[in-house]
Amino acid sequence: MPQGTLVVLGGGYDDPTLALLAGLLPARTAPIEILTTATAHEPARTHAAYARALHKLDCPHVGHLQVDEDHPADAPATLARLRAAALVFLTGGDQERLTEQLLGTEFLRILHERCQAEPGFILAGTSAGASALGGQMLVAGRGWRSLLAGGIEVIPGLGILPHLLIDQHFVERARYPRLLHAILAHPQLLGLGLSEETGIIFRPDQAPEVFGDEVVMVVDGSALTASTYAGRPIGKPVGGQGFSVSLLVAGDTLVLGEASRG
């Protein structure tokens, strides 16, 4: 398990999560960085909104880690700020932008290293920023068509939580079918469907705990007894038997199972 603290939120209203994060800081004056890579339009406005919310929580030092097509991840000043941050917060938007800009970079290596080795370091993400932290991430799939072969797209994530596949806005956008399909395709991963205003906090040496107002759906395909996924013609329904499905609410803990997960 990582020695840092990781927090994933399913999107929606995130002020309560910001309050939770502020409470986890070693001091309210600790440096915070907002990573807006997933936010394609007006990232400065997004950063400013988070900075205002955190200032109200007595957190005065809220920087903007702007990593995009014009601001390379491995710029020396950017890496220095990443190393100094007590909390890095990944905003929502398009999770593919995060992997396009960060995979294979020194920035991501440092982020992995800090999460794994530094007690007290905090990494958090909402919506796309949460989904990107898994080993794989869903980037396409809507409605009933997501239960047809070819109806979803799953690509590598940032791998901070390598044994998880995280979906967001889960209940609100009716994403049950696509998460089931994704775990049918990747049964070695544990699927997490995060509703809005709901998330999970991963602390070192503790069971991950659900927080928020709605539910987290957990899909475990490790004991599948049958699957029609392999070789299914495009457009034909996929099927599987033996899923384990749980619904968790605030205060419930996530059982990660074997040591290969977590």
Number of strands: 15
Strand content: 25-35%
* Silhouette: globular
Quickly give the structural class. Answer: alpha/beta
Helical element count?
A: 7
User: What is the top-level CATH class?
Assistant: Alpha Beta
CATH topology: Rossmann fold
Report what the structure shows.
- The chain is of the alpha/beta class.
- The protein has a single domain, classed as Rossmann fold.
- It contains seven helices and 15 strands.
- The strands form three sheets. A seven-stranded mixed sheet has the order 3-2-4-5-1-10-11, sandwiched between helices. The chain has a six-stranded mixed sheet with strand order 7-6-8-9-12-15, with helices on both faces.
- Helix 3 runs parallel beside helix 5.
- It starts with a strand and ends in a 14-residue tail after the last strand.
Topology readout:
Elements: E1 5-9, H1 15-24, E2 32-35, H2 43-55, E3 62-65, H3 76-84, E4 87-90, H4 95-102, H5 106-117, E5 122-126, H6 128-131, E6 134-140, E7 153-156, E8 161-167, H7 176-185, E9 190-194, E10 198-202, E11 209-212, E12 216-220, E13 226-227, E14 240-241, E15 244-248
Parallel strand pairs: 1-5, 2-3, 2-4, 4-5, 6-8, 8-9
Antiparallel strand pairs: 1-10, 6-7, 9-12, 10-11, 12-15, 13-14
Helix pairs in contact: 3-5
In brief:
This protein is α/β, with parallel strands linked by helices and 262 residues long. The chain has seven helices and 15 strands. It has a single domain, classed as Class I glutamine amidotransferase (GATase) domain (Rossmann fold, 3-Layer(aba) Sandwich), CATH 3.40.50.
